[in-house]
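User: Predict Neural cell adhesion molecule 2's structure from this.
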Amino acid sequence: FSFLLFYSLELSVGESKFFICTAIGEPVRLDWYNPQGERIVPSKRMALHTETSRSRLIIYNAIIEDAGIYRCQATDASGHTEEASVVLEIYQRLTFRDVQSPQEFRHGETAEVVCDVISSPVPVVVWYYQDREITEEHHSRFQVLPNNNLQIHQVTKADEGVYRCEASVEARGEIDFVDIAVVVNVPPVLSVFQQSFNATADYQESVTFTCITSGSPDPLVTWHRKGQQLEPSEQHVFNRLEGGRSMLTIRNIRQGDGGTYTCKATNKAGSQERELFLKVFVQPHITQLKNVTAVEGSAAMISCVAEGEPLPDISWRRASDGQTFVDGDKSQDGRFEVRGRHGKSVLTISGVKLTDLGRFDCEALSRIGGHQKSMFLDIEYIPKFLTNHTIYYSWEGNPVNISCDVMSNPPATMLWRRERFTISAEGTANTRVHSAEGKSVLEVTPMSDRDFGRYNCTARNNIGVRYQEFILAQADVPSNPYSVRLSAVSQRLATVTFMKPDSHGGVPISYYLVQYKEVGSQEWRDVKSHSVQTTVVLTGLEPNTTYEVRVAAVNGKGQGEFSHTETFQTLPIREPSPPAVHGQRGMGKAYRLGLVKQDDGGMPIVEYIVKYKTDKEEQWMTKLVPGANDFAMLQPLQWNTRYEVEITARNVKGLSEPTFYQFFMPQKPDITGKKSLFSGLGLGAVVGLGLGALLLLLVLVDVSCFFLRHCGLLMCITRSLCSKKTATSGKGKEIEEGKAAYLPIWVFMKLMRHEIGSTTKLPLKEENGKESLKPDTIEIKVHSDNSLHTKPDDSKA
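Assistant:
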């Protein structure tokens, strides 16, 4: 058998190829050997596919080390071998290995732009920038290094851009390039306009810090406080605006927000920090003020502690009189003194008195504001008795309450003693004890003389003990009143006045008993005073009668002796006194006179006689008003007129003197409105009023023609009606002849409306055309035949 001819082959790194070995004959085995003479065993990169007389060697992803002579050996059955070989040449194509784009550098440093390119043979590398080849002659800061990298000394932002790395292999005419973006990072530059800020806590205030940054890439701005980065929240709000401005807004500033804040700008080229300071002013706040309890006569120290920024000044105010004390003050009596330091003030009160009891105000004040709190100074003291009433009166069988009133702090316990024996709270047969805070009442019901005498009240608290003695004495009835006097005696009434008795018998007077009777009568009538008033009014007396009166005082023990008897006589019946008068305008042409009854003379007012007239008339008009009325209404009256009034009251005895009164009726009110009559009317109403006015004008023109020229529609109607009359009279002729000049227009208007059978009475006219005041009338009748009849009133026939 025999092989194909020997041949050679070129293969680039990374390529894959296969080789076929074909034997002519009948070989038993076909084997492949590598350049190192080792038989090739199939692997991941080399595979063998062998048939009877054919074998295929596959090389995947060839590498430089795969270059050399590969032999294919065939062996027959007798062990005879033949071989063929192939020369494999491996070369490296132009390859850019892991070239990064962009490549970043820091401003000012020496930058080395990496262009890692391999080939076999070694390639020639040329750099281009902005389509121009980079040479050391034209670019002093640029240098191509032996490893084909481009070095830029003190790189700046102006050097930023796209650089081309071009490699070529002349032997093969192979050329390739890669574009590399060069980025120059500039470290952050940070500035602030304002470095220190002021704010006031607890006033919903906000403060905004602003940092201005520059750099490439744009720096990331973060805010820090006390070493911790601040995160966005309701209180901390972050904003970033154009121009590199970054802002931190602190909302609802509180006291703890004060201090140093750091603005930090960071990018790939580095970082920079600036500090800003927030000064938080805090409104004064009193943190410690307590109520104080002191013992009367001792010293009291009241402490007030306040905080704030700036530290506030502390002052004191006594609420009872408004007196103020500041640091270093001392009162005139030397008892009050104030000492303070570093937000704490102490008010010292020496020799505490009960008058010091009460509220004290502590006020902390600074230029930011003020805060005030109050405390109460409580004073403990030994019990004090509140009353000097130590003598009580009673009588056998009458209970009496002996009250022991005590003021003390803390409250005192109280007990009663009688002749060195303590009266228990449950009491005895005739004594009982009723207790309340600050009060103890001993109820004693004297049963015999030995129940009268001295009782002792003891009050005790942890400050001390006090005693008070009370005397229970036997009571008596009051002595007699004196200086009984009678006043304001009239026909039916009399007023009794008197002086209190010299002794009330030890028991308060309940009332006074006034007795009176007619002289010669044996029956006394009783009148009780209202409470203990020393004036009593006697009513229901008879006129012109003599009475006797006496007075006695009554207390719990009983009624005392009567006073001396006094005599008085009531007045006889007479005419009433003149009434009092007051007046006011009534509605329209009316006037209201108010009548106030004075002395009725002992008998009821029957009536009031009211006479009135104008000041230009002589004749009086009279109006009778029942005596029960309290006013008289005068109407109708004339406008713009003065009236004179005379009022007399009458009872059964006769008339009073008259009361004179004058009043003035004003001018007639002007009811014409200031606004236009048509201002409130609609269009339809205005048109209707216009038509009505036109009709009225036509009627007036027709009536004028009737009287002046004896013509017109009214004249025609009148003549037509008069020509048909069935009876003729003198007046009828005058009408027919147009001589009814004195008939009012409304009569003819009725004639025009044919009010058949209507009857109208007209007032007579005097020669001058005025209406006569006489009640004489003329009766005009229109009958069914349209005839007109006139006749005098029956009363004047």
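Residues 673-680, 724-797 have pLDDT under 50 and may be disordered.
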